[in-house]
Write a structure and sequence with these properties.
mainly alpha, elongated
Length: 1516
C-alpha cells in the first residue's frame, strides 16, 4: 500500500520494500558544470538563462561545486550507464511527445518547438516522460539503483509571467544530442553556484526523468574531462578524487592479460568476478535485527484529532508524516464512521485500521499473561472488531433514506471488502453474518444483501457450513417469490434469483445436497424458465434430485422392503386420493420400474383391499408408467403368466383393469392375441368359462368396443375353435340392451328381441353385476354415448325435454351395477347443462359418493368446477330454487383439498338462504305441505314460519318447539308414516336459528332414546334425521362411550332394545337402505354418502362403537336374549367383516389399540380373537394364532391385519401386576424367538408391522438386529470363508430390512447416535480397500459390490430428515460422528480408484448429511486430523476448512557446513546433492503489522517482516 503525493507536494523519501533493493541509497558522486563554462548567447544576454538551462539540463546531472577538470574519458560514463533499466531513463525521449497534449500549460510550451533546446529548462522539468513513466511503470518491482551521481536539488526558477518574444536572429551551430543516448534523472541536486533552495519544489515537477543525457557533452575544449594531464592519462578522470587506499597503484593489464590469453582464462575471469560479487553481497548484507514498531498513538485534543483525520483523508499528505501522531480514541466502529464521514481513501483507512489493531493486539502481550490468554484475547479482539465492521455495514445500508446513501454504502462495502481481503476480520464470523443477513432479509432489502453476498460468493461456496445455508436461503427467497400472489411486481428480483439459482445448480451442486430444504423447494425450481443452458441445468437438477433422494429413501436392497414401501404408498393413495405427491414418490421408490408395476397389479387384485377405487388408481398409475418406457401390455401378460388368479373376485378385478386400459389404448389387444396364439391358443371350452384360467378367459371379457373389425373376426375365430358361440354372445348383448331400454321406457327398435315381461330395476342391476365385462362395457357405452348424449342433444336443440331426475337415477343405478365409473363421469359432464336443480343436485351427490373413484380418474375437481360454475348461473335464474344444488356442493366441497375458501363460501351461502327464506329448509316441498299437517303439526309449522322472519330465536321458544316436534316424531316412529319425514323437515328449519343449541338439544334427546327399552328399531328413526341434516355423526358418536375401557362394558341396567343400541347403530351405518314413504330414493342415496364418510373420516370414532357392539353381542351369549341380536344376521356379519377390514386399513394403529385392550369377559376376548383371525384368514375359521403362524401369514397385503393380531396377542391383562408382567415378558421372548427364526428362514415380510409395536419391543429387536448386522461385516482380521459369502450377504440384507422398518416407523425408536462399533466396521472396510495384497482381491470385490452398499444404506437411516430415530440437535457423542466422517473422507478418496461405481459419491453425500450440525469442537478435531494429510478440495469443503495463506508458515534455518572438505563431500554424496541441511521452525505472520511507512524515520531494518529473512543487502 503506497501513498503517492500529487504535484506541488514535496517528494518523500524512497519507499522501503521487503526486498533489499528498496533500501535507501547512499548518493554517489556526479559531476556538475559551472555556469562560467556555459557559452553565452551572442544574440541576447537576457536569453543566457535559458541557454544555460539547456546545458545544465543536458550535462549537469552529476556535478557538485567542483572546479572544472580536464582529462578522463566520456566512454566510462557511457559504459557505466549502458543497459541500466530505471524508471527515470528513457531511450528515446522524442517518442514521448505524443503525451504533450496532456501536459500542464507551462512557459516552455508556448515557445516555438524549434527552440525547444534553448528554452527547455525555464521551469523545473514537468518531464515529457513523467506521465508515461509514472503511469506505465510496472509494479511492485522496486527501482534499480542508478549508477550516476544523484545531483543536489536545483533552485526553482522564477516563473515567467509572459512568454518572451521569439528571437529571429541567427544562432551559432549547436550539436544535437543523439536520440539513442541514455538519459538519467535529475534528483534535485543543488546548483553549482552553491546556492540552496529556500523551499521545496513539487516532487512531480522537480523529478524530471529526462533532465540529462548520460555521458554526452559537446566538445568545446573547456570541459574538465578534455583537460589532459599525466594523472588523468594514467588513472582516468574522477569527479572526486578517491581515497588513497582504493587507488589503483598500477594497471591491471599486466597480471590479467596473460591469464586471459590462456585457455582457462575465461574460467579465471569468471572466478574473479564471482568473488567480487560475493564480496560485494556480504559487505552490504543486512544483519541487524528488526526494529519495527507500530506507529505510536498519542492523546490529542478534539481539534487536532479532526485536523489529523482531515490530513489522513488528503492523499497529498504522506502517511509517513501522519504516522508520528496517531490519535488515541479512534477504534472500533468510531474508526469506521470517521473514515466514512471524512471520505478517507480506502487504502489509507485500512492503514489506520492496521495501526490501531497492531497496537491493540500488542497491548495484550504487554500485560504479562501466558500465551493461551494472549491468543484468546487477540481472538476476542478480532471477533469484536469483526462485529463492529458488520454493524457498520448494516447501519449504513439501513440509512437508505439519506441523499448520499449510494456513495456511503459503496464506501462501506468497499472498505469491508478490503478488510476481508487483507484477512483483518474473523472470516467465519463474518461469513455467518452474511448468510444470516440473507436468510432473515425481507424482499425490500434482498437486492442489497444479494449484492453484498456475491462479493464473497466463491469463498462462501467453498465451505459446507456456509454454502449450504447460502443455497437454502436463496432457494427460500426464490420459492417465496415464486408462490407470491404479486409475482409480476417482483419480476426483476425473481429474474435475478433465477439467474443465481441456475448458476449455483451448474457450479456448486454439492451445496444443494440437503434433503430437508431440497424437497421443500424443488417444485419451484422446476418452474425455472428455459435458457441456453437448459439441458445442462436439467441434467444437474436430476443429479441433485437423485442424490438427495438417496439420503431419504429406504435404500434397503431386499425386494420385500421395496414392495412393502410401495404397498404402503398405494394404501396412502387409496386413503388420501387427492394427494398428488404420493404417486411421484411411488415411482421414485426404485429404479426397477417393472417391479413397481408388478406390485401395483398385485395390490389391485388383492382381496385384502376392498372397493373398486383401487382398479382406477392402478389404471391411472399404469397409464403414467408409459413415461418410463414401460410396456404395460407385456407387464400385465407376464403377471397373468406367473399368477394363476384362482379366486373369481381377483379375476373380475384384472378384467376390469384391462378393460379400462384397453379403452384408453394403453393395453394392446392385438399384442395380447398374438401372445395368446404364441402360447397355443385355446384348447378347451372350459378355458372360456368364468372359472377358467384368467389368461384365456380374458379373451371373452375384452370390451368389444375397443376392437377393430379384423380383431373381432380373429377373436371370433379363436373362440369358435373351442365351441364358444359368438352368436349367442351377440344375442345376449342385444337382449341386455333391450332390458335396459325397457327399464328406461325407451321404445324398442324393430330388430330388438322382444322380452316376455319387463324386469325390475333391482333385478336388472343384479343381472348386470353378474355379467361379463364385455357385456357391462357394451351396456354402459349405450347408456352414455347413445341414450344420455341423444337426450341432452335433443334438449339443447329444443327437440325434446330435459333428462328427468328419475331417468337419471335409473341410468346411474345401471352404471353403478356395471362399475363403469369412467362412463358415469362422462354422463355427469353431459347432464351438467340441464337446468333442473334437483337433477344437478343428484349429479353432485353421485360425485360425492364415488369421490375416491373420480379422484383416481382425475375427474373430481373438473366436474366439481363445472357444477360450481353452473350454480352461479342457476342462482341468477332461479334464486332460492337453487338451494338443492347449493346444499350438495356445500356438502362436497370440504372433501376436496385446495378448495377450503370455496367450501366456506358455499356453507355461508347455504345458511344465509335458510335463514332468509320462510320456505322449506331441507328439501323442496309443495306450497300446501304445511296444510297437510294435522292440528298440532300445522300450529308448529306456523310458529316456525313466524321464527323465520327473525334473525335469531330465544332458547326457551326453540326448546318448546323442539320437544313438541320430537314428541310427534316419536309417535310416528316405526309406522312408515310420511308425517315422520315432515317432522324432520320442521326440525331442519328450526336448526338454522341456533345451530349449537339445537345440537345440544339433539344430543340430550338421543341419549334419552338410547335408554328406552321398548321402542322400534333405530334404523327407522335415525336415517331420516341424518339424511335431512338434523342429526350429525358427531352427535351420534357422542352417545357411544368414547372411553375404550368403558366401551367394552354393557350398560349395567340395559334391558330390551337398550341392550342392543350399539349393534343397531353399527348395523345402520353398514346396511344399505331401500326407499320407503319416510326415505325417498334421494334420501337413501344421501345416507349412503354419510355411511361412506363415517368409514373414511370417522374411523377413530367407529372403533369404540365396534368394540361396544361386540361387548353387547358377547353379553347376549350368556343369557337368553329376548330380542334378536343384529350381529346374528349373516348379511350383517359379512358387512361387519368388511367394515372392520376397512377400518384396519384406514388406521391400523387405532385398530390395534382398540382390540388389544384386555377385557374381564373371556367371551368378549374370544369373540375379538375370532374376528381378528377372520381378517387374516377369511376362509380359515377363527381361533388364536401363534407368533410363528402370524409371521408365516405375513406379506405386504396382510401386514395391517398381522399387526392387529400381534397387538392382541401381546396385550396383558394387567401389566402392573406380577402375573401380568411375567406373562408379558414371556410373550416378548416368544416373539423374539419367532422373529429370529423368521430371519434365519429368509422370511422378512413381517417387518412392516414392527413400527406399530411397543417401544420396548422395537428397541429390543433393533438392538439385536444391529448387533447381528455388524457382526457379519468382514474385516482383514476376520475374513469370511468363500462358502459363506452369499449366506452372509443375504442375512445382512434381511437384518437391514428389519432395522430399516423400525427406523422408518420411528414411533417406538429412541434417539440414538452412531455406534462406535459401526465406525470400527466402516474403518475395517476402508482397510480392505486400501490393502494391496492380492489374496484379498475377492474380498475387495465383495466389499465394493455388496458390503459397502449395505453399510451406506444403513448410514442413510441416520441422514433421512423424515426419520424419527435420529435428531441431530439432541444426539450426543460428536466424537463418534467425527470419527465416522474421517473414515468416510478416506473412503471418498480411496473409492476414486474405482470410478465405475457410484460409491464414492454416495460416501461423500452421506458425509455431507452427517457433518451438518456437527459440534464445533468435533469439526475442529476433524480439521486437525486431515489438513496435513490431504489437500483434496472435497475434504476441505466437507469440514469447512479454508487454509489461511499466512498460517502454517515455516522458517528454514541452515545448518553450518562441516569444516573439512572431506566431510562436506561425504555429506553431499549422502544427500544426493550439495545442499546445506535446513531446520524448520514455525513462523508467525502478523497481518496487522504489515504496514508501509510505519515510522517517520527510515531505518536499515524497520520493516514488519525482517529483511534478514530475504538476505537483503544495502545498495551503495
Amino acid at each position: 500500500m503506497t501513498s503517492r503525493p500529487p504535484m506541488a507536494v514535496p517528494q518523500r523519501q524512497p519507499q522501503r520494500t521487503l526486498s533489499g533493493s528498496g533500501l535507501s541509497q547512499s548518493p554517489t558522486h556526479q559531476r556538475t558544470l559551472s555556469q562560467q563554462f556555459l557559452p553565452q548567447s551572442p544574440i541576447r544576454k537576457s536569453e543566457s538563462l535559458s541557454e544555460q538551462s539547456v546545458d545544465v539540463g543536458d550535462v549537469a546531472q552529476g556535478r557538485y561545486n567542483t572546479l572544472p577538470r580536464r582529462g578522463g574519458s566520456r566512454l566510462k560514463l557511457e559504459l557505466a550507464n549502458d543497459g541500466i533499466e530505471h524508471p527515470g531513463f528513457s531511450e528515446s525521449p522524442q517518442n514521448l511527445d505524443v503525451l504533450s497534449a496532456n501536459k500542464v500549460f507551462t512557459p516552455s510550451r508556448i515557445m516555438s518547438m524549434n527552440d525547444a533546446s534553448d528554452a527547455g529548462d525555464l521551469t523545473p522539468r514537468m518531464s515529457r516522460c513523467e506521465t508515461a513513466d509514472e503511469d506505465l511503470t510496472p509494479l511492485p518491482m522496486p527501482p534499480r539503483r542508478a549508477r550516476v551521481v544523484i545531483p543536489a536539488k536545483r533552485p526553482e526558477p522564477s516563473s515567467i509571467s509572459a512568454p518572451p518574444r521569439r528571437d529571429a536572429r541567427p544562432k551559432p551551430f549547436t550539436l544535437e544530442k543523439p536520440s539513442i543516448a541514455p538519459r538519467y534523472p535529475n534528483t534535485s541536486k543543488p546548483e553549482s553556484t552553491g546556492k540552496t533552495k529556500t523551499k521545496d519544489v513539487a516532487p512531480r515537477a522537480s523529478a524530471d526523468l529526462c533532465a540529462g543525457v548520460a555521458d554526452f557533452y559537446p566538445w568545446t575544449g573547456a570541459h574538465p574531462e578534455d583537460q589532459f594531464s599525466d594523472s588523468i592519462i594514467r588513472h582516468g578522470f574522477f569527479d572526486k578524487t578517491p581515497a588513497q587506499s582504493t587507488q589503483e597503484p598500477v594497471s591491471a593489464k599486466a597480471p590479467l592479460f596473460p591469464a586471459l590469453k590462456h585457455k582457462s582464462g575465461l574460467q579465471t575471469l569468471s572466478t574473479i568476478f564471482s568473488g567480487i560479487l560475493n564480496q560485494r553481497r556480504h559487505s552490504g548484507q543486512i544483519t541487524s535485527a528488526s526494529t519495527f514498531k507500530p506507529p505510536p498513538r498519542v492523546t490529542l485534543t478534539d481539534t487536532k484529532r479532526e485536523i489529523w483525520l482531515k490530513d489522513l483523508a488528503n492523499p497529498a499528505i504522506s502517511l509517513r508524516r501522519l504516522s508520528r501522531t496517531i490519535p488515541h480514541g479512534i477504534r472500533g466502529k468510531v474508526l469506521l464512521e470517521q473514515c466514512l464521514n471524512k471520505n478517507v481513501p480506502t487504502d489509507r483507512a485500512v492503514w489506520l485500521a492496521k495501526c490501531v489493531g497492531a497496537n491493540e493486539i500488542r497491548a495484550f502481550k504487554r500485560k504479562g499473561v501466558n500465551g493461551i490468554f494472549v491468543m484468546g484475547g487477540e481472538a476476542k479482539w478480532i471477533r469484536d472488531w469483526t462485529v463492529f465492521v458488520e454493524q457498520f455495514v448494516e447501519s449504513v445500508s439501513n440509512g437508505f433514506s439519506e441523499n448520499d446513501w449510494k456513495t456511503k454504502i459503496t464506501y462501506a462495502i468497499r472498505l469491508a471488502t478490503h478488510l476481508y481481503a487483507e484477512h483483518l476480520l474473523d472470516r467465519d464470523h463474518y461469513m455467518d453474518w452474511l448468510v444470516a443477513g440473507l436468510e432473515n432479509s425481507n424482499q425490500a432489502k434482498l437486492p442489497m444483501w444479494l449484492l453484498v453476498v456475491q462479493i464473497y460468493w466463491k469463498d462462501l461456496l467453498k465451505l459446507r457450513r456456509h454454502g449450504r445455508r447460502l443455497v437454502s436461503a436463496i432457494l427460500s427467497h426464490h420459492s417465496s417469490i415464486y408462490h407470491h400472489p404479486d409475482r409480476d411486481i417482483l419480476l426483476p428480483l425473481a429474474t435475478r434469483l433465477q439467474s443465481l439459482v441456475e448458476s449455483l445448480l451448474l457450479a456448486s451442486p454439492e451445496n444443494f445436497i440437503n434433503p430437508s430444504s431440497w424437497f421443500t423447494y424443488r417444485d419451484s425450481l422446476l418452474g425455472l424458465p428455459s435458457t441456453s443452458n437448459n439441458e445442462s441445468r436439467l441434467k444437474s437438477f436430476q443429479s441433485i434430485d437423485s442424490r438427495n433422494d438417496y439420503l431419504t429413501s429406504s435404500n434397503a436392497k431386499s425386494q420385500p422392503a421395496l414392495r412393502s414401501i410401495i404397498v404402503q404408498l398405494l394404501d396412502s393413495i387409496h386413503r388420501t386420493p387427492l394427494d398428488t405427491e404420493i404417486p411421484k414418490r411411488l415411482w421414485k421408490t426404485s429404479e426397477n420400474k417393472l417391479s413397481i408395476v408388478r406390485t401395483i397389479l398385485e395390490w389391485c387384485t388383492s382381496l385384502y383391499r376392498p372397493g373398486v377405487a383401487k382398479v382406477y388408481i392402478a389404471a391411472t398409475l399404469l397409464r403414467s408408467s408409459t413415461s418410463f418406457d414401460i410396456d404395460v401390455t407385456r407387464a400385465i401378460l407376464d403377471f397373468l403368466d406367473t399368477d394363476p388368479l384362482e379366486e373369481n373376485a381377483r379375476k373380475q378385478l384384472i378384467f376390469h383393469l384391462v378393460s379400462e386400459l384397453a379403452r384408453s389404448d394403453h393395453f394392446s389387444v392385438p399384442q395380447y392375441i398374438q401372445w395368446l396364439i404364441a402360447r397355443g391358443g385355446l384348447f378347451d371350452y372350459a378355458e372360456t368359462e368364468p372359472d377358467g384360467p384368467c389368461a384365456t378367459r380374458l379373451l371373452v371379457e375384452i370390451p368389444l368396443s375397443s376392437l377393430t373389425e379384423p380383431m373381432r373376426n380373429l377373436r371370433a375365430t379363436l373362440l369358435r375353435r373351442v365351441r364358444f358361440s359368438i352368436e349367442e354372445e351377440a344375442q345376449d348383448t342385444k337382449r341386455a340392451v333391450s332390458c335396459v331400454k325397457s327399464a328406461l321406457s325407451v321404445p324398442l327398435n324393430p330388430d330388438d328381441p322382444l322380452l316376455p315381461k319387463p324386469m325390475s330395476l333391482k333385478k336388472l342391476s343384479k343381472r348386470i353385476e353378474l355379467s361379463s365385462r364385455s357385456l357391462k362395457t357394451t351396456i354402459s357405452s349405450w347408456l352414455g354415448n347413445d341414450f344420455v348424449a341423444s337426450v341432452i342433444q335433443n334438449a339443447q336443440s329444443d327437440k325434446g325435454v330435459e333428462l328427468p331426475r328419475v331417468t337419471f337415477e335409473t341410468v346411474r343405478t345401471l352404471l353403478e351395477a356395471a362399475q363403469d365409473y369412467t362412463m358415469l363421469g362422462t354422463v355427469l359432464k353431459l347432464v351438467s347443462t340441464c337446468s333442473n336443480t334437483e337433477l344437478l343436485a343428484c349429479c353432485v351427490d353421485t360425485l360425492n359418493l364415488h369421490l375416491p373413484v373420480f379422484t383416481a380418474t382425475e375427474d373430481a375437481k373438473p366436474i366439481f368446477q363445472i357444477y360450481y360454475e353452473r350454480l352461479k348461473i342457476v342462482l341468477e335464474e332461479q334464486g332460492i330454487g337453487a338451494r338443492p344444488l347449493l346444499a350438495s356442493l356445500a356438502n362436497l366441497a370440504p372433501r376436496l383439498t385446495g378448495l377450503e375458501d370455496v367450501a366456506t363460501q358455499l356453507q355461508n351461502d347455504l345458511i344465509r338462504i335458510d335463514r332468509s327464506s320462510a320456505a322449506d329448509a331441507s328439501s323442496p316441498l309443495s306450497d300446501n305441505m304445511a296444510t297437510q299437517l294435522q292440528d298440532a303439526e300445522t300450529e308448529l309449522s306456523e310458529q316456525i314460519e313466524k321464527l323465520a322472519s327473525y334473525t335469531s330465536a330465544d332458547r326457551p321458544t326453540m326448546e318448546r318447539l323442539f320437544y313438541a316436534i320430537v314428541k310427534k316424531l316419536q309417535i310416528y316412529w316405526g309406522k312408515a308414516d310420511e308425517r315422520q319425514r315432515l317432522c324432520c323437515i320442521l326440525l331442519t328449519r328450526l336448526r338454522v336459528f341456533d345451530i349449537s343449541h339445537f345440537n345440544e338439544l339433539m344430543r340430550i334427546w338421543i341419549q334419552h332414546i338410547r335408554k328406552l327399552a321398548n321402542r322400534p328399531y333405530i334404523s327407522q328413526l335415525f336415517p331420516p334425521l341424518i339424511s335431512s341434516g338434523c342429526l350429525s355423526l358427531a352427535i351420534l358418536f357422542a352417545t357411544v362411550s368414547r372411553n375404550q375401557t368403558q366401551g367394552s362394558q354393557v350398560q349395567p341396567n340395559a334391558a330390551g332394545f337398550a341392550s342392543i343400541y350399539m349393534q343397531e347403530v353399527l348395523q345402520m351405518l353398514m346396511k344399505p337402505l331401500s326407499p320407503t314413504p319416510v326415505m325417498t330414493s334421494e334420501d337413501c342415496y344421501r345416507f349412503r354418502i354419510i355411511q361412506d364418510r363415517a368409514r373414511h373420516e370417522h374411523a377413530k370414532d367407529l372403533m369404540p362403537l365396534v368394540r361396544g357392539a361386540l361387548a353387547e353381542y358377547s353379553a347376549s351369549l350368556h343369557q337368553q336374549a329376548s330380542i334378536p341380536q343384529p350381529l346374528d344376521d349373516d348379511q350383517t356379519k359379512s358387512q361387519f367383516l368388511e367394515l372392520l377390514r376397512g377400518l384396519v386399513l384406514v388406521d391400523p394403529n387405532a385398530a390395534s389399540q382398540t382390540v388389544s385392550l384386555k377385557s374381564p369377559d373371556p367371551k368378549l376376548a374370544t369373540l375379538i380373537e375370532t374376528w381378528t383371525t377372520k381378517l387374516l384368514v377369511p376362509h380359515g375359521g377363527g381361533g388364536q394364532k401363534s407368533f410363528e403362524q402370524v409371521l408365516e401369514l405375513a406379506n405386504e397385503f396382510t401386514l395391517p391385519f398381522c399387526q392387529v393380531k400381534l397387538s392382541l396377542n401381546l396385550a396383558a391383562d394387567d401389566p402392573n401386576s406380577l402375573e401380568g408382567s411375567e406373562k408379558l415378558q414371556m410373550q416378548f421372548e416368544l416373539l423374539s424367538k419367532a422373529l429370529d427364526n423368521a430371519i434365519d428362514a429368509n422370511n422378512i415380510m413381517w417387518t412392516g408391522m414392527l413400527p406399530s409395536l411397543s417401544s420396548d419391543i422395537t428397541q429390543h429387536l433393533r438392538n439385536r438386529a444391529e448387533s447381528r448386522f455388524l457382526d457379519i461385516i468382514p474385516s482383514l482380521k476376520n475374513p469370511p470363508e468363500d462358502a459363506l459369502f452369499e449366506k452372509d450377504i443375504q442375512m445382512a440384507e434381511n437384518l437391514l430390512t428389519v432395522i430399516d422398518s423400525i427406523f422408518r416407523g420411528g414411533s417406538g425408536s429412541k434417539v440414538s447416535p452412531l455406534s462406535s462399533a459401526l465406525v470400527d466396521k466402516l474403518a475395517d472396510l476402508w482397510d480392505i480397500l486400501a490393502s494391496g495384497v492380492g489374496e484379498y482381491a475377492s474380498l475387495k470385490s465383495a466389499v465394493i459390490s455388496h458390503w459397502l452398499p449395505l453399510v451406506f444404506s444403513y448410514l442413510t437411516l441416520y441422514t433421512s430428515p423424515s426419520s424419527g430415530a435420529v435428531d441431530v440437535s439432541k444426539v450426543t457423542g460428536g466424537e463418534i460422528r467425527a470419527r465416522a466422517l474421517i473414515v468416510l473422507a478416506g473412503l471418498v478418496q480411496e473409492l476414486d480408484n474405482h470410478p465405475s461405481s457410484k460409491l464414492g459419491q454416495q460416501a461423500f453425500d452421506i458425509a455431507l448429511a452427517l457433518v451438518d450440525g456437527l459440534p464445533e469442537d468435533a469439526r475442529s478435531q476433524c480439521v486437525r486430523a486431515v489438513k496435513d494429510a490431504t489437500a483434496d478440495p472435497r475434504i476441505r469443503y466437507l469440514f469447512s476448512y479454508a487454509p489461511n495463506p499466512a498460517e502454517d508458515l515455516m522458517l528454514a534455518h541452515r545448518e553450518k557446513p562441516p569444516p573439512g572438505i572431506h566431510e562436506r563431500r561425504a555429506m553431499a554424496l549422502n544427500m544426493g546433492m550439495s545442499m546445506i541441511p535446513e531446520r524448520l521452525t514455525p513462523f508467525v505472520f502478523r497481518r496487522w503489522e504489515i504496514l508501509n511507512e510505519p515510522t517517520p524515520v527510515v531505518g536499515d531494518n524497520d520493516t514488519s517482516l525482517s529483511l534478514t529473512l530475504f538476505d537483503a543487502r544495502r545498495i551503495k
